[in-house]
Structures are given as C-alpha cells and as structure tokens.
Amino acid sequence: MPDTQTAEMHPQRWGDPAAAAPLPESARGLIELAFGLDDRPAVNEVSLPEAGIAPTLLDGLRDLLGPDQVCTDDETRRLRTRGKSTPDLLRARAGDLSDAPDAVLRPGSHEEVAAILAYAVEHHLAVVPFGGGTCVTGGLVARREGYAGLLSLDLVRMKRLLAVDHVSMTATLEPGLRGPEAEALLAAEGLTLGHYPQSFEYASIGGFAATRSSGQSSAGYGRFDALVVGLRVATPIGELALGSAPANAAGPDLRQLVLGSEGAFGVITAVTVRVRRLPAEKVYEGWRWPSFEAGADAMRTLAQSGLLPTVLRLSDEAETGINLARPDEIGGESAGGCMMITGYEGEPGAVAARRREVTDLLAGLGGVCLGEEPGRSWAHGRFHAPYLRDSLLDVGVLVETLETATFWSNRERLYADVKAALEKSLGEGTIVLCHISHVYETGCSLYFTVAAKEGPEPLEQWGEAKAAACDAMMAAGATITHHHAVGTDHKPWLATEIGAVGVSILRAVKADLDPTGVLNPGVLVP
Ligand SMILES: Cc1cc2nc3c(=O)[nH]c(=O)nc-3n(C[C@H](O)[C@H](O)[C@H](O)COP(=O)(O)OP(=O)(O)OC[C@H]3O[C@@H](n4cnc5c(N)ncnc54)[C@H](O)[C@@H]3O)c2cc1C
Questions:
Q1: Is the pLDDT higher at 39 or at 272?
Q2: Are 23 and 391 in contact (CB under 8 A)?
Q3: 238 beta partners
Q4: Half-sphere exposure of 99 toward its Cβ, with a 13 Å CA cutoff?
Q5: Rounded to the nearest 5°, which phi and psi values hold at 182?
Q6: What's the CA gap between 182 and 63, in Å, rounded?
Q7: What angle do CA 476, 382, 472 make, to 5 degrees?
Q8: Radius of gyration for the chain, computed over Cα atoms and rounded to the nearest angstrom
Q9: 268, 231 in Cβ contact below 8 A?
Q10: Which residues touch 499 (CB under 8 Å, ≥6 apart)?
Q11: Selected residue with higher pLDDT from 5 and 297
Q12: Cβ–Cβ < 8 Å for 97, 78
C-alpha cells in the first residue's frame, strides 16, 4: 500500500474538499460582465433513498468480506453516487441522490472480487466497479430496475504494486491505486508511468484501463491503453489473464476487449504496464502561432516527422485569450494568436537533442518561442481547472467539457461544426474554447470547454447542447469520444460509430462473459 492515501473527494464538487473556494475576486468582474452573477447555493442536507436490498443478502456479503468491508452508512453511499461530470455535480448539488448504491463493498483481492461476482450472479445483484469516481460519461450510473440490489464495488483497498521487472521495464499494479499513489510507488523504484490526465489526482489505474484514458503527456509516453501489456480480470464466468509476451499473434488481441470495457465485461484486478525511468529533467515552454490553423499544421508536421515532444497541446484563439486574460502578452504588437505548450522529459542529453530538433522545426514553420515561463505556468496549473468549474457553477455559470478526435484532413470541419452546434444550442453569449490535446501521425483530438449562463433547467439545457455537439461529431465522421469513454451518456451515438456488426460483437461478448447481466447494467453496451 502507498504511504499516502488519496483523500475522499467532496461529494458535490471536484477534488479535495479543503480546496473548495469561491470564484477568485480577479475573475468575478469578467464573469459578471459575460454572464451576470447568480449565486446558486448547493443543498447540503440531503437524505439518501432507503437501501433497496434485503438484509439477508447483506449478511451473505458480510460473510464473504467481513463486516467492515460492507458499508451501508449514508456518507459512504453518498460518496459512491455517480461520477464528476457537470450533470453529476448539478444533480448532487440539487440533493438528488436517487442513484446511490444500496451498499459499498470493499474487496481486498482478486479472489474476493471473484466471490462477490459469484454471489451477485446467484442473487441477481447489480455490481458497479468504482475506481476513482472521476467518470464524466455516466459510467457509474447503472440501471437498478429488475435487480435485487445495486452494489458499488469499491477498489479502494486494492492498492499494491504487485511486481516490478526492471529488466523488461514493466510493473504490475492493483486497480485501486490513484494516479499519485501509483507514481509514488514507482518512483521508489526509480520508475514512472507518465500518465497524467487532468483527473490524475483522483483517477485510478483500473479506471484508466477501463476507460482507455489519455494523459497530458500522451505525445511522449502514449495513451494508457498503449502502456498496458497485461491484465487480470474477474468475470462472472471466471478469470481472464492476458499478456504473457510483449507482443503476440495468438488471435485477436483480447486485451483490447477489456481496455475500454467500463466494468461491463469484468472487474480489472491487476494491470501490467510499460514503465520508463524517472526523468532527470522536465522542461516545458510556450510557443506563439498566428492562428489555430498554423499551430495545428505545425503539430501535424511534428507528428509526421517523428519529432514529438513529451507534451504537445495547442489552444485556439478563444482559449488562449481566456487562459492568459491578456492576449497581447503572446501577440506582441499584434494581439491574438494561439498558445502551444511543448514539454520534454527524460535524460538531459536526450531532452536537449529533442528540444533542439523540435525548436528548429517549429521556428522554421513560423512559430515564436516564448521561453519557459508559459510552460511553467501551464505545468503549475495543470490540475486546477476542475476547481474553477465548481466556482463558476456556484455563481450560475454552466461549464462543461467534451472531446472528440478525427483525421488531420477533417480537423477544421469538426472544429467548426462542434463549435457552431454548441453556440446555436446554448445561445448568445456562450463561450466555446478548444484545444488540441493529443496528436498522432494521422490526426488529433479536440477538447472543448463550454461556458454559458445557467438557465432554470440546467440539466436539460446542457443535455440538448451535448446532444447537438455529439450529432455534429457523428455528422462530421469523427469519434464520439477520444478518451472519456462511453458510459451511459455517449451510448446513443455508439451504434452510429461502430455499426450494427460492432454492436452485435459487444452484445455477444457481454452475453458470454456476463450472461445474467449483473455487471454495470446499462453502461457501454447498446
Ligand atoms: C475534472 C476531470 C478531468 C478529466 N481529465 C481527463 C483526462 O485528461 N484524460 C482522460 O482520459 N480522462 C479524463 N477524465 C475522465 C476520467 O478521469 C477518466 O475516465 C478516468 O480514467 C476514470 O478513472 P476512475 O478511476 O476515476 O474511474 P471511475 O470513474 O471510478 O470509473 C470509470 C468507469 O470504469 C469502470 N471501472 C472503474 N474501475 C474499474 C475496474 N477496476 N475494472 C472494471 N471497470 C472499472 C467504472 O465502473 C466506470 O464505468 C477527467 C474527468 C474529470 C472529472
């Protein structure tokens, strides 16, 4: 177990409860100008629905796990209700806890997880695996109708570094380790995973695998699914252990069926990942581009030249302006432009060499290097934005993010269409920001942040805007999600993306691995 355990998140907000703060004074004026200020106090005194599970079934679970690992108290159930999307937060703030699990189970081993699944099958109990609880797509909101109870299977006790192979450079981690806990255990071995999503402080190893997460250093370290070499999974029909070699041709790669399966096919109980040596040096810097197009073209050239830094991201004009709040800072005499962040991690010699090559290429394409200050500032604030979302919700500003990906040749269309769909749905005064968050030789992902004045029915307001954006993604031939996964929120669009045969494959796998449908009912599989 790691020395320092991650604290519980605030039940109605993102992150550390101690970090909850009102909107900074410096931002209030700007926000008032853009949207008006409309304080929205959250409902704090909320009661949970009665647990809908027979006491005898709870007794059976206590026999399996011990009495302390079957929690039915209100606070624990409340903390395991839904994830952290804006709709999740709006419901929690309104005191709606109708999706609360009947009990929270805390297994300590693969064998205990397997025993819970067998018991769930026998008594027809729905089981929702819970890692860090940072899901933003409704993946923790399972259907409960028709089940004898709804159980949250909390992996919080499974936090060991099970094995390290310094020769092959792999490590096997238990699923309940949160980002910082996993990095601390690896750092003690001189290693790193290098997976830093914005939710890093709370999201778990099992969750990264179950959602095919992508981190801010994906250009250098790779997406999480690209880091996974092996998996151990408990399914209702038995154990699945995969990854006995670095690569194989033993039929289709079944690891890919588990990665992104969002708890619908099994519970991931161990993940073997590729690891790197702890970087001796980390350097981040800023670049200015005259336009989003020019910056995006430069990213494509880097990716297609095999010259990616560890971190590479580019904000559009609107996001650059908001982030800096002083666009003239990056534009010099010509205000505006777009900010790119490049980052290099590794041994000093390798960092210097890659930085030189990237700098030559970017400067040759018309980029202006702004030095390390913007890079330092990005690195310092990289996990802070979700706290600001709460402060904005507090004053009646609806804020949410969404993401997609496409090929380079379709990027401009996708960007324009999603932006237009959001602006049309949410109306005048809506602010839509975008950045390119992950790049590949063939394309990139677009990450949008949206802010609008909260109306009287914010859930419906956002639901319509999100649907319009998702429709636009599909119409543009892009993906419904590059790294947030499907959950329940993206399910209506999945069939369009993967087709009838794709849906049929997912259903067949579900029917085979989970024949009575106890795992995360209603999530992922259309
Ligand atoms: C503020 C914020 C920022 C975010 N930034 C990023 C980002 O930069 N990149 C990114 O990729 N994502 C991001 N996300 C989304 C989210 O953090 C990721 O999807 C993350 O991988 C979820 O991990 P978790 O441990 O919190 O999983 P949970 O939220 O607990 O679960 C997610 C899904 O996986 C299932 N699951 C969890 N653990 C297991 C397991 N061991 N076995 C089987 N199924 C399991 C759950 O049932 C659920 O369906 C962000 C979310 C928030 C709220």
A1: 272
A2: yes
A3: 235
A4: 21
A5: -65, -45
A6: 31
A7: 10
A8: 23
A9: yes
A10: none
A11: 297
A12: yes
Q: How many residues does the chain have?
A: 526
59 CA distance to ligand 1 middle (Å): 30
Distance from the CA of 10 to the center of ligand 1, in angstroms? Answer: 16
3-state class (DSSP) for residue 92: helix
Alpha helices in 201-266 (DSSP H): 205-211, 218-221, 224-227, 255-258
427 alpha-carbon distance from chain centroid: 28
pLDDT in tens, 397-442: 999 999 999 999 999 999 999 999 999 999 999 999 999 999 999 9
- Tokens, residue 453: 């004045």
- Lining ligand 1 with CB less than 6 A are 14, 83-84, 128-136, 139-140, 155, 175, 197-199, 203-204, 206-208, 210-211, 213-214, 262-263, 267-268, 386, 483-485, 520, 523
Whole-number Å distance between alpha carbons of 222 and 256: 15
Q: Name the closest-CA residue to atom 1, ligand 1.
A: 386
Query: Please, which residues have CB within 8 angstroms of residue 184's CB and are 6 or more apart in sequence?
Result: 2, 3, 4
* Alpha carbon distance 378, 198 (integer Å): 12
pLDDT above 70 covers a percentage of the chain that reads 97
